[in-house]
Write a structure and sequence with these properties.
Glycosyltransferase; eight-stranded antiparallel beta sheet; four-stranded antiparallel beta sheet; 22% strand
Length: 435
């Protein structure tokens, strides 16, 4: 290792240490006017509807929020009371290449008639990690719950009073074809990932065109699996999976809420938590690692941006360190031989923007992750990439060699240079010129 290289590493580590001291100096002591309210709840059910996910497809205005978890690229919503469904709405394909509703409700429940009694309008809620719904017909109450077990697998759990038979049905959007195979529905469309719905054993399935009806045996609890792009494997322990999802969210809450903060502040913190994890996406296409998209509500934001990623990683470090490490790896996966980290990367790598980089907060993100998990192997993995990125800034963005870097662009345009600053089309650049 050269003297210059050692010096750079020392400066980098000193910078990390200074950043650590500065951040630690902020402390967590609340203002006397912001004292906590005692023991805080870690049950996800205590934080319902922090995001408004009520939207029934078919309206003129666009939906801008979906329930997703575990990195899924598919989302669901809760039906509006003015346009109810007896099932969750969706799925919606969030991939920028599609962005469409596969169904307005892939799975709705009917209750066996009992005289003239109809089914009530559902009451539905979003809580961290799941969607919930309740409705009744006479004295028969039905509860539904939707959870993501993996990025490519969702599970709907249905509970009802045994004795009244339930049936399930759904209809798919134009171009999708429905076929049956034992207790499974196979839904296909040219150029799209298939969807597989697995019903309880001995369910009678009838498919017609783009619709289906399912008649399961009478029971008090049903589990229905929805596979996106893959077929759910046999023999899954449904209850264990469900407990695992709930346990994961409880741990995230334990790492987020604080007894020394007022309840309203803790709700803001949990809202930030669920927003981050809703926008976390699993590897897909040319994205070889997971990461957080800026907003799944906007089609062109379905990729990872550099300085967004560093901030997302720092934020997730305390409650999702594994996902935070994935976020860092995703950006460095496209680091150029010269050391530059691209502005943004997408599932289709041809869309990546290498006209400019973004403010270099990567070392701070790695530091925050290390402070939480103490993973020296991760630091060893990241350090050469951080040094290369550090060197790139001084080789390619210090045009007057005065030791202070400037924002610039690889194509010589002011537009890309403004993007590199992260301030994009700010008015401060209106009279700026490239040097």
């Amino acid at each position: 290792m050269s003297i210059m290289h050692n010096g750079l590493v020392k400066r980098l580590l000193n910078g990390l240490l200074i950043a650590s001291c500065a951040l630690a100096g902020c402390g967590h002591s609340p203002s006397p006017s912001l004292q906590g309210e005692g023991r805080v709840p870690f049950d996800p059910g205590s934080y319902s509807d922090l995001l408004n996910l009520h939207y029934t497809p078919g309206k003129m205005e666009k939906c801008q929020g979906w329930f997703t978890d575990e990195g899924s690229w598919f989302g669901f919503t809760l039906p509006e009371t003015s346009n109810p469904r007896h099932g969750f709405c969706g799925p919606f394909d969030l991939d920028e290449r599609h962005r469409d509703w596969i169904s307005d409700s892939i799975f709705e429940v009917e209750i066996e008639p009992d005289g003239q009694k109809g089914i009530s309008t559902p009451e539905s809620h979003f809580i961290p990690g799941e969607l919930r719904m309740e409705y009744h017909s006479g004295n028969v109450q039905v509860k539904q719950k939707l959870q993501f077990l993996r990025s490519d697998l969702a599970m709907i759990t249905i509970e009802s009073k045994q004795g009244r038979r339930l049936s399930f049905h759904g209809r798919f959007s134009e171009g999708w074809k429905v076929n049956t195979e034992n207790d499974k529905l196979i839904i296909n469309k040219e150029g799209r990932d298939k969807i597989v719905i697995v019903f309880p054993d001995n369910t009678e399935l009838v498919a017609s065109g783009r619709s289906y009806k399912a008649l399961p045996l009478t029971a008090s609890k049903y589990h229905v699996l929805i596979g996106f792009g893959s077929e759910p494997e046999d023999g899954l322990d449904f209850e264990s999976f469900a407990r695992g999802v709930e346990g994961k969210w409880k741990k995230r809450l334990e790492a987020t809420v604080r007894e020394d903060m007022p309840e309203r502040f803790n709700k803001v913190a949990v809202k930030a938590l669920v927003t981050l994890m809703s926008n976390y996406k699993a590897p897909k296409g040319d994205l070889h690692y997971g990461g957080v998209v800026p907003s799944q509500g906007v089609d062109y934001f379905m990729g990872f941006w550099a300085w967004d990623s560093w901030k997302h990683a720092a934020a997730m470090a305390s409650f999702a360190p594994d996902e935070a490490m994935e976020q860092v790896r995703s950006m460095f996966d496209y680091q150029t031989p010269e050391g530059m980290v691209p502005d943004c990367i997408y599932p289709v790598s041809q869309w990546n923007n290498l006209r400019n980089s973004k403010p270099p907060l990567a070392a701070w993100a790695v530091l925050k992750i290390f402070e939480q998990n103490g993973d020296k192997d991760f630091v060893t993995e990241a350090l050469p990439k951080l040094v290369s990125y550090h060197e790139w800034w001084f080789r390619f963005r210090d045009c007057d060699s005065n030791g202070f870097c400037e924002y610039g662009s690889c194509d010589g345009t002011l537009e890309a240079a403004a993007w590199e600053s992260g301030m994009d089309n700010a008015v401060r650049f209106d009279k700026t010129s490239m040097v």
